Amino acid sequence: MATVLSGMRPTGRLHLGNYTGALENWLEYQKQYRSFFMVADLHALTTDLDTGQISQRTREMVIDWLAAGLDPERAPLFVQSQVPEHAELHLVFSMLITLSRLERNPTVKEQVRDLGLDETVTYGHIGYPVLQAADILLYKGDLVPVGEDQAPHVEITREIARRFNNTFGDVFPIPQAKLTRFARFPGVDGQRMSKSLGNAVNFTDPPEEIRQRLRKAAIDPERVRQDDPGHPEACTVYTYHQRFNSADDVAVVEKECRAGPRVRGCFDCKMEAADRISEHFAPARERRATLEADPARVDAILQDGNQRARETAHQTMREVRSALGLGGTQRIAGRG
Ligand code: TRP
Ligand code: SF4
């Protein structure tokens, strides 16, 4: 059975973009594949050394994973920093890729530009795709669900795996990126939904909060006067209907929107979308409330996930050290 590994940086509570862009796919993968889901807390250090909230954000995010329906019995949910083999494999892999290859990475280049780092970019930041390669290959991941921005990192992972196998023997699979659909889910302002842009709607927000957030949502800019026909394709609220309303109701929204504000007012249309979102996530909200009231259960789930991840990681590192001929032991190369 193919293995899936994916991870997210600990950003705290998740929004509709995280849900439709990643989590929702994970729910399917956990049924079809051997899966591991990781909180990439060491990755968070690449761009933020203020670690005061990392632990809290890790828990908030894991609670959302569980609320969405990830099943920790099927797929270990674990925290990167609690499995030291990630750091060890990262070190070995750092010898298998050139600095110039890493400097050509478009995603990191863009981050460096956006954050205005340039001369101040750290060694760890330039190298984080190598850490990501270790994340994936420690579990012998075959499939890596990621957004488009992360595809270059999976490519680097493939290069490292090939280089390792050619040099030391066949230990690793050559993983493939599984690009996620709906990766560009719009925020209330119409730009890509992102916590840092302040345009996000958390999927477990209470219904009143979701209504509040949608009040300000971007609508068709040409629908101003009572007789202006609407263009649903230009409206963020319509995208929400498409995603969370029934096909029949979406058809009604479309028709009425085109007929103009006398037939369908934007305010009512927004509130209807808000209510469909709230209904869709009612079970998740309930699960979240249960978990918030039971922190020991969240601890136990993470401890169990960390333990299971460590067992796999430990086994892979034994094969790696052996393939390298480290430690004075006999070689046991092979995918074991
Ligand atoms: N780098 C990814 C991000 O910033 C998170 C991540 C870390 C990841 N390790 C991973 C994703 C391994 C997939 C597989 O979003
Ligand atoms: Fe958007 Fe609905 Fe207004 Fe049409 S009626 S512009 S779909 S909010």
What can be said about this structure in brief?
It contains 15 helices and five strands. The protein has helices spanning 16-32, 41-44, 54-68, 85-93, 99-103, 106-114, 123-126, 128-138, 151-168, 207-215, 236-244, 247-259, 266-280, 282-292, 295-324; strands at residues 3-8, 34-39, 77-79, 143-146, 176-179. The strands form two sheets. Strands 1-2-3 form a three-stranded parallel β-sheet.
Total discrete domains: 2
Bound molecules: tryptophan, iron/sulfur cluster
Strand order of the largest sheet: 1-2-3
Please tell me the CATH architecture of the largest domain by its name.
3-Layer(aba) Sandwich
Order of secondary-structure elements: EHEHHEHHHHHEHEHHHHHH
Largest sheet entry: 3 strands, parallel
What descriptors fit this protein?
binds iron/sulfur cluster; 15 helices; two-stranded parallel ribbon; 336 residues; elongated; 7% strand; mainly alpha; Rossmann fold; binds tryptophan; 2 domains; Tyrosyl-Transfer RNA Synthetase; 53% helix
What does this structure look like?
This protein is mainly alpha-helical and 336 residues long. It folds into two domains: 3-185 and 295-324, Rossmann fold (3-Layer(aba) Sandwich); 205-280, Tyrosyl-Transfer RNA Synthetase (Orthogonal Bundle). Helices cover 53% and strands 7% of the residues. It contains 15 helices and five strands. It has helices at residues 16-32, 41-44, 54-68, 85-93, 99-103, 106-114, 123-126, 128-138, 151-168, 207-215, 236-244, 247-259, 266-280, 282-292, 295-324, and strands at 3-8, 34-39, 77-79, 143-146, 176-179. Strands 1-2-3 form a three-stranded parallel β-sheet. Strands 4-5 form a two-stranded parallel sheet. Helix 9 (151-168) links the parallel strand 4 (143-146) and strand 5 (176-179). The longest helix has 30 residues, at 295-324. The protein is elongated. The structure holds tryptophan (TRP) and iron/sulfur cluster.
